[in-house]
Amino acid sequence: MERESMEFDVVIVGAGPAGLSTACKLMQLANENDQELMVCVVEKGSEVGAHILSGAVFEPRAINELFPDWKEKGAPLNTPVTEDHIYLLNDENSAKKLPNGITPKTMHNDGNYIVSMGNVCRWLAEQAEQLGVEVFPGFAAADVIYNEDGSVGGVITGDMGVGENGEQKDGYMPGMELRAKYTVFAEGCRGHLGKELISKFNLDKDSSPQHYAIGFKEIWDIDPAKHQPGLVVHSAGWPLDEATGGSYMYHAEDNQVFVGLIVDLNYDNPYLSPFDEFQRLKHHPVFKQYLEGGKRVSYGARAIAKGGFNSLPKMTFPGGLLVGCNAGTLNFAKIKGNHTAMKSGMLAAESIFEAIQENSESPVKELNSFTEKFKSSWVYDELFRSRNFGPAIHKLGNFWGGAFNTLEQNFFNGNLFFTMKDEHKDYAQLKEASNTQEINYPKPDGVLSFDKLSSVFLSNTNHEEDQPCHLQLKDPSIPIQINLPKYAEPAQRYCPAGVYEVIEDEGEKRFQINAQNCVHCKTCDIKDPSQNIRWVVPEGAGGPNYPNM
User: Fold this and answer.
1) Pairing between β-strand 231-237 and β-strand 83-89 as defined by DSSP bridges
2) For every residue of 199-226, which 3-state class applies, written as one string?
3) Which of 257, 339, 355, 423 fits 59 for a cystine, CB–CB 3.0-4.6 Å?
4) Omega before 239 within 30 of 0, i.e. cis
5) Are 511 and 464 in contact (CB under 8 A)?
6) How many CB atoms lie within 10 A of CB 99?
7) What residues pair up with 88 in beta bridges, in sequence order?
8) Cα 247–Cα 83–Cα 254 angle in degrees, nearest 5
9) 77-113+208-303 CATH choice from 3.40.640.10, 3.30.565.10, 3.30.70.2740, 3.30.9.90
10) How many CB atoms lie within 10 A of CB 64?
11) In the chain, how many H helices and how many E strands?
12) Structural element, H or E, at residue 182
C-alpha cells in the first residue's frame, strides 16, 4: 500500500513520562548546541494524559535534573507528602499500624509529592512543544518499520476508518509512515510493539521473566473535614488472602483522595477477581473512614511491570531503544516508576544526540553508549539495590517477604551478597479450577463498592464500534474448549472492565469479547493461561479518557 511518509530525526512512541522526557531532553541538547533536530511524539490517547494511570506519589529527582526551575514553570506538583502511614490489615475489620522503623525505608516519602501523572504529562507535553517537539495525540503506532538491513526505521500509524469486517469505510485514511534515524519506544507496561521487539531481537535472553501486577485506582471527592492533604497510606495483607500485593490511599489536593489496590498477577486461583478484591478493600475501616459520605468520580486500571532489575531486557537494538515501563524500569520497592522512566528517557536522549551530532547523515545503528550511561546512572544503582524485593514477596509472601525486605533495605542498604530470582512466568501459575476453591464475592453496595460496568463508565472509555477487534485470539476455540473446562475461563474475572464473557446461546456456550469496554490495561495479554489473547492498538484516540489520573 502507498502511504504518506514523513521523515524525522527521532520518533518517540508514547507521550508518557519516559517518552516526553526523552523529547524534552533531546531538544534541550539540540537548542544548547545550535543543532537542528526534528523530533515527534505519537500518542494513541485522544490527548496527552488520556491513557496515563499512576498512583501517584512522585519522586522529583528526575524532574529536578530535567527542569530545575519546574516550580517557576508551573509543574503540577502541588501536594508535598506530609505523613506516611503503613498498615498490616489482619482481616476485614482489624489492622495494625506499623512503626516507620520496621518498614522498608524505600516506602518512606519525605520530599515526594502526591500528583496526577496525567496532568504532569500534560505539562511535560507543553514544555516539549515549547522546545520544538511535534506531539501528535490520537495517532496509534500500529507497526514497526524495518529497514532492509533489519534495523528499525520508524513506525506506521494505524489506519482510520476500517470496518469490523476489515473493509474500508467512507472517510478511510491509511496510516502514515513516520521514518526516523532512531525510534524510541515508550509505550508503557507491555507495549505491543515493545513486546514484538523484545521477541524479534531476543532482548530478554539473559533476563528473568518479566513479572506484572494489575493496579486499580479510583478518585474520590471526600468530606473536607476528613481530608488531610499530603497523607500517604499504604497497606498489605487483607483482602489479598490468595495473592500478594498491597493497597494505597493518597490525600491529594482539592479534597480528593486516590485509592487503589495492586494485585500481583502470579496468583494461582483462577476464581480470584482482582476487581472484586479492590471493591472489598474499600469497606475496611482504614479506608472506609475517609470514603464514607464521599463520591467516586473516576476509575481506571493498568498493568504494572514489576520484575525490576532481574527482568530488565537489553534496551537497545539496531535503530532504537526501549525506555521506561516498556522496558520495566519501575522500582517496586518504592512502588514508583515515574522518576526512573523519566531518567531512562533522558539517558536515551543523551545517547541519541551524541550519535546524531557525531554523524548526522549516517549515525551508528545501535546505541551501545546508552547501555554504559544506564549502568553508571542512579537508576541502575536504585534498581540493583531493590533487585530482591519482588522475588522475596513472591517466594515468602507479604509478611515474611516484607520482613526480609525491611532487613535488606534498612540494614544492608540493598547490598546483600546474593540475588533472589523468580524464574516462573505469571500466566503459568494458575492451577486448574478443579484444584482450587471458588470465591464468592459480596455484591457491591453502590456506596463504597461498585460493579464493573458502572466503573468503566467513569473511565470515559470509548472505541469506534465498527472497527476490527483489537483483542485478537490466536485460536478462537481455546476459550471454550480449553480455558473454560480447565480454568473456568479466568478472563471473566481478571479483566477489570467486563470485556470477556462466557454466554449461553441456545444451549451452546460461546466466548464474547466486548472490546468497547477495554481500558487498555493489558492484563489479558499477560495472564491468559493459554497465551491466546494478543492486545494490539485499536483505532487512534480509542480507549479511556482519564481526566486527572
Assistant:
1) parallel
2) HHCCCCCCCCCCCEEEEEEEEEECCHHH
3) 339
4) yes
5) no
6) 7
7) 96, 236
8) 80
9) 3.30.9.90
10) 12
11) 15, 24
12) strand 177-185
Q: Which residues contact 245 (CB under 8 A, 6 or more apart)?
A: 213, 236, 261, 262, 263, 264, 398
Mean pLDDT of 472-489: 98
Query: Tell me: the pLDDT tens digits for 508-533?
Result: 999 999 999 999 999 999 999 999 99
Digit-coded pLDDT (tens) for 73-94: 999 999 999 999 999 999 999 9
Sheet holding 83-89, edge to edge: 95-98, 83-89, 231-237, 245-251, 256-264, 212-221, 295-305
From its phi and psi, is residue 344 left (phi > 0), alpha (psi between -120 and 50) or beta? alpha
Residue spans of the domains in the chain: they are: 3-66+116-207+307-384, 77-113+208-303, 386-424
* Grid coordinates given for 129: 512543544
User: Grid coordinates standing for 231?
Assistant: 497523607
Residue type for 224, please? Answer: P
For residue 509, give the amino acid letter: K
**Under the phi-then-psi rule, with left for phi > 0, alpha for psi from -120 to 50, and beta for the rest, what region is 427?**
alpha
Considering the domain 3-66+116-207+307-384, what is its CATH architecture? 3-Layer(bba) Sandwich (3.50)
479: which DSSP letter?
Answer: I
Burial class, 57, CB count within 10 angstroms (exposed 0-12 / middle 13-18 / buried 19+): buried
Instruction: Fill in the DSSP letter of residue 97.
Output: E
Alpha carbon of 231 to those of 228, 241, 532: distances in Å? 6, 26, 42
Cell 472489598 locates to 280
Residues 6+ apart with CB under 8 A from 165: none
Cell 504494572 belongs to residue:
304
pTM above 0.90, yes or no: yes
Residue 146 C-alpha cell reads as 524495518
Concatenated DSSP letters of 392-439: HHHHHHHHHHHHHHHHHHHHSTT--S--------GGGGPPPGGGS---
